[in-house]
Fold this protein.
Amino acid sequence: MAKITRRQFMKGMVAGSAAVAGTMSAPGIVRKAFTAKPSLNIALWNHWIPGAADVHTAIIKDWAAKNNIEVKIDLIGPQVRDIRTIASAESRAGTGHDIMALGPFDSWSFYKQCEPLNDVADFLEKKYGKFDSLGTYLSYSQEDKAWYALPAPIGSHSYPMVSRIDYFKKHAGIDLVDIFPADVGKRDKAKVDAWTYDVFMEAAKKLHAAGFPFGGAIAETSDGMDWLGPLLLSFGSQPMDREGNITIESDGTLAGLEYLKELTQYMPKEIYGWDDASNNRWIISGKGSCIQNPPSAWSVAKRTQPENAAQMWHHDTPKGPNGRFRGALFYNFILWDWCKEKKAAKDLLIYLLEKPQQYKMLEAGQGYDMPQLKPMYDNPVWEKEGPPPGGIYNYVIRGDEQLVVGGYPAHPLAGNAIYSQSILAVMVAKATTGEMTPKDAMKWCAQELEMVTG
Amino acid sequence: MVTIASTVNGRSTPGIFRKLRSRRYAAYWMVLPLVILIAGLVVYPFVYSVWLSFENKAETKFVGWQNYKRLLKYDTFWLVTGNSFRFTLTAVFFKATLGLILALILNNLPMRGQRLWRGVSLIPWVMPLALSSMGWWWIFEPTHSAINWIIVQLGGTNKPWLSEPYWARAACIVTNIWYGTPFFMIMYLAGLKSIPESLYEAAQIDGATALQRFKYVTFPMLSKLISITVMFSTIVTFANFDIVRILTRGGPRYTTHLFGTYAFSIGIDGGHLPRGSAVALFMLPVLAVAAFIILRNIARGEE
């Protein structure tokens, strides 16, 4: 990897903008430039982990003080919808914040008003290696060869399995800590390869019989898409290709729906009305043996039900005929094209994504945030957090899982609608409740997808 | 054209300005801020959303009626239409009936107790709808619902309130009834207070029973108010958003989506603002008919 420092990058940018600076040589402009302190207006996602947002704010203020730039920071959320609504209003008004942290897909709604960040992304990739493919999918336009957004660590999270060590061992005879130890060097490939959806089905049956079923929303909520999208993909089901061709009516989808039809027999009936917090409550209460979620459920359990938290192990998803996929929601930063201090804004973005700052942010998030650059996986936060010791070690990708988002691999503009309208989750609900046969549910889904495209 | 000019403070003022400053035009000046406000906050967004509904997803091309035509061929749209009518008709019927019953009970209470109960029964309506919907969500929550806890304590079994279409629809309607009934009650109570006591006395002298007094005195005297209240509530209920958004988010399986929530889902969540606008504008004919009936009733009342 080429060793370029942020200062060198900035020098390059300064040289590149020399011509622009030349046009500012008129006395009036120069005076104005020196008297008015440059300022940046930033909208950050308000992290739900207490104190995390304070650390993010302090990092930015520290940078601002060093660079003599005035910053105004608004913390919005933690509901990511709040930022989306504000971004939508700013997009219509053509004014507002300079930098915004947005949820997955959201930047695509405004990409025509986003400043391409190719120089920033190129710099970071040269220094740290490629961004995760999902981060690239959500931030980079293949058509325009432009990074309209920058993959961000703050708020990004994935959906590994969160399982009860004791229930799995006692009722299903599976030692999850042995299969997915808190040390990637100790992983036994054969054991990991044997962790398939067939094995999971058998475990789900036994856990249901023991009174501790697996729980996951099959409803109009993002959690539903976060486990069903990857599951269907692991059976070879894709809703749509990037060009907009609808591909949902396939053998892969049929196989996935048949699998889910059986699996839902061993799940609680309320899952069709669950929201994003329901599965958290399910495992925290001790009623459930397994969910798919970021470490938020475990984090809450640590405070409210510590004995249950001590039994929660985060680990890889099962493998299907088409591979092993895990859901993830990756956030990103955008720089609005109306920003007057683009150079400073880009410098700040680089600063935020550099290792020392990312490390601080990841630690402040207590391991909840998921970096999109592999070198950050070395952060010890996932190793040291507990109990159980190493319980969230496998939260970042340690094996052969591919991170995806429900709606992938459709073009993000279509993927956004597939995801936010929970189209795949509703298809699964229709097929598994008996409202439709799996084939009819696929046809229904195809009609929904047609509406998404045009 | 001849310009009539006058002299004010030694300077000549054109006649038109003098006219505008006259008392005759004062009323127009006074309503102007309101007109500007309505034009900015109601007329402009409405016209803009109509325009938007004729554009493509990227808002770069005029596509005419295409968004509307596509919606009409779409199963989910018809499901949403059915949901909206079912929700509105059921909720308004129960709100009107319960509101009338409550108003009659309250009207027959002694004045002192009446004030207290009138205040108490208005609480659901005064409370912000989003807040009360959150309360109802807690009551109906699929896994840890308060109502299920009571049922189980009494020896019954859990009901999947928000997980099955029938119960989820019922939950949304119940929440709306709880919120909207006080509005009907207070309107009817005001109507009951305005019925001259002499009519009841005359009916009593004629030997009318309580039911006959209601049928031949109370109901005819309230009928205009009932129709106006029902139509007004129809408009508000049909355009409801908060309850569904908080309780079910349109689920399970889109069976509780209303025009408002579905428009939001497509337009804001899904990023297809033109089609979201088209969905929202499908409400227009229904609301327009309701508004027409209300205005006609008011006009007749004035006659």
User: Anything to note?
Assistant: Confidence is low (pLDDT under 50) at residues 16-33 of chain A.
